[in-house]
Amino acid sequence: GVTEVVRGADLLSSTPRQLWLYRELGLTPPAFYHLPLLLAADGRRLSKRDGDQSLEHLRQKYAPEEVIGRLAFACGLQDAPRPVRPEELVSDFCWARVPRQDLCLPEGLF
Questions:
Q1: What's the sign of the alpha-carbon dihedral 47, 52, 53, 56?
Q2: Are residues 63 and 101 in the same domain?
Q3: The pTM is what?
């Protein structure tokens, strides 16, 4: 019953073999959407082992609306890093506006 799969762009290379498997099993595949990865300001992939902030640590410092707002700003979904609830972003959401390249988070965003 799954009709859409949204995941990171690092899993894009898995999609052809998964589509093949759906075809071989005679199943209707879901629509796949791949989001760009968030990178540190220096361009490297974010990683807890490298000391990058985890969502758990961000929750201790920021309200959920602040985290969403800052990420929405970094993705170009709003013009400033102001707090926002996810449902406030839905009406303007369009897959065509989602960046295709990985995103470097601006220095000092968090």
A1: positive
A2: yes
A3: 0.73
